[in-house]
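Handout, section B. The chain below has 238 residues.
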Amino acid sequence: MVQIYNNTDEINTKAADLFVESAQKAIAAKGKFTAVLTGGSSPAGIYKLLASDAYKNKIDWSKVYIFWGDERWVPLNDDLSNAKMSYSTLLSHVPIPQENIFEMYKDGVTPEDYAAEYEKSIRTILGEEGKFDLILLGMGDDGHTASLFPGEAVLEEQTKWVDAYYLAPQKMYRITLTAPLINKAEKIVVVAFGEKKVHALKEVTTGEYNPTLYPMQLIKPVSGELLFLVDKVAAGTN
């Protein structure tokens, strides 16, 4: 389902509202809320809004568990770190216990070994069902999401919940949730805006099925909801 907004402020407000709504619903039903954050520049406005006085007090942060959809294999203090951005805009400004935050990086281990360790953490919090309450995703200009990049072997993964691999074009390791795990979620919210997203958004939502070229097409919830929050420019209606 694609929802079109006038600008990024409206997108950020809708995404923040959905986050709060999902958190309140999950905490009321089962005593905890499990969420997956996305990186890049797109969600910064959402996170700042959630950290604002107007939003942060609507959530019992002691019952929130935070994971990430993917990460560049860099230290947490590196400017390329998704976690660093998330802390600076949101997590350092809300009363969430540190033990409820699961960063996708660890010193002294290989990316592959930590992918297996990260999957164990997910199973500990979510159980064998592996169903997150809410997953936030971005979409690259090339149609990738998380670290599911065009043409990479990770697109074929069916059993692992978390995988790590060397992304040659970027000359770095990436760690990512896999499509089968993402698709278990109760709600998946994809944020995309700007002129550079026009082509990918059109192909992903209305083009023929070719996930090797447009990996976002792999995101098809088993029983949950998939929602695209886009602006008029990305939707080509501006």
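Note. Strands lie at 2-5, 33-37, 64-68, 70-72, 134-138, 162-167, 172-177, 187-192, 225-231. Compare this with the example in section A.
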